[in-house]
Amino acid sequence: MDEVSLAVEDLKKDWDQKVSQLQERIQEIENCGNSGKGTEEANALPRLNGAAQDCLASLRSMQFRLDFLAQQLPTMEEVQSGQALVEIWKEQYQKLHMGLRNANLQAKANIRKAAQEERELLLGGGEESTVRRRNLQTKAGMTSAAESITESLRRTRQMMVQEVERSASTLATVDESTSVLKKAESEYKGHRSLLSRTRGLLSTMKRQDVIDRIILAVGLLIFLMAVLYVVSKRVGVLTLQRKIVAAIKSGSIPNKDAIGNAALNQETRRLS
């Protein structure tokens, strides 16, 4: 299994964990106000909603990461499966978001009901009402301070999550750029080897062209020499023939029959 597939599997596990956390927060929000402590639970509601919103932000980030990783899976079947999982996560995210909204509506209704009961109890008079009023004021002050600190921490955490998401996006972009550069480097190496072979072929062709030119020049020279030799011989024979014919016509050389008879007479004398 390659690195992308492993990253997708880890992302699925993180998604399931984060969904479970969000469902727990939604259940806590929905039950907010049922214990009869309307004021305290009303002060705790923003903290619960902040935690739920953090979970939703993490789920959105996971959707983007899965959509990015799905495009890099090795096979087309895995790419299609990843894209289908992205759509499933989007539907699940919408259901969770709607569940959080309904839980808040239920919590507000519960808190209003609990606050009404507390108000009626406080307005009833008596020592119990006075003690409860003091306790509520003390708890309200402590809860307000705690909620303020919690809200500040939540905002800080949200900013850190956003920075982590931006860093992850930047790292993903850098990884993609690195893969593109590696691909370009491999293509350049392939072109460089091709250019080296092409230069070698061109050098070989140039040497072969020089050799062919030398061979053609030598062949042409030999041919011309042969032609000159043949022409010179032919011209010499024709000149000799003309000289012989001219000599015969002028009588300097006897003709053929006279030469034959003279040779025959000389042979008869020698035999006698």
Automatic annotation (TrEMBL):
The keyword Transport applies. InterPro entries: Sec20, Sec20_C. It is found in: Endoplasmic reticulum membrane. It is a single-pass type IV membrane protein. The chain crosses the membrane at residues 214-232. GO terms for cellular component: endoplasmic reticulum membrane; SNARE complex. The keyword Endoplasmic reticulum applies. Keywords: Coiled coil, Endoplasmic reticulum, ER-Golgi transport, Membrane, Transmembrane, Transmembrane helix, Transport. Residues 144-235 form the Sec20 C-terminal domain. GO terms for biological process: retrograde vesicle-mediated transport, Golgi to endoplasmic reticulum. One of its GO terms (molecular function) is SNAP receptor activity. Belongs to the SEC20 family. This is Vesicle transport protein SEC20. It comes from Rhynchospora pubera. The lineage of its organism: Eukaryota, Viridiplantae, Streptophyta, Embryophyta, Tracheophyta.
